[in-house]
Amino acid sequence: MCLLGYVPRGENKINGRRYFTKGIDERTHHIHIYEKDHENIKLHLDFKEYLINHPTEAMEYGELKIKLAEQYPENTYKYQEGKQKLLNKLIKKAKNWRSN
Fold this sequence. Notes:
Order of helices and strands: EEEHHH
Mean pLDDT: 91
Strand order of the largest sheet: 1-2-3
Number of domains: 2
Distance between the termini: 37 Å
Radius of gyration: 15 Å
Helix content: 55-70%
Low-confidence stretches: none
């Protein structure tokens, strides 16, 4: 991953995850890697599928992330904190959607 320009960030507060970012001054990518059959794989994939199937909510989430990135360009904690309420709501919706 390092040879491809990704920076390893360890678990980054999520047990069992390996997190990589690309782009030092302007991040262009981030990758979450889990061991096969890890419980968070399904959660991430269900969340992605939910957003694909609910474009209005995906747009709302995307617009919030852009706003927060502009508001807190050097403070990832504030960025994360700002999106957490909506993220939790969408994760719950994704879980319910997938189970139906």
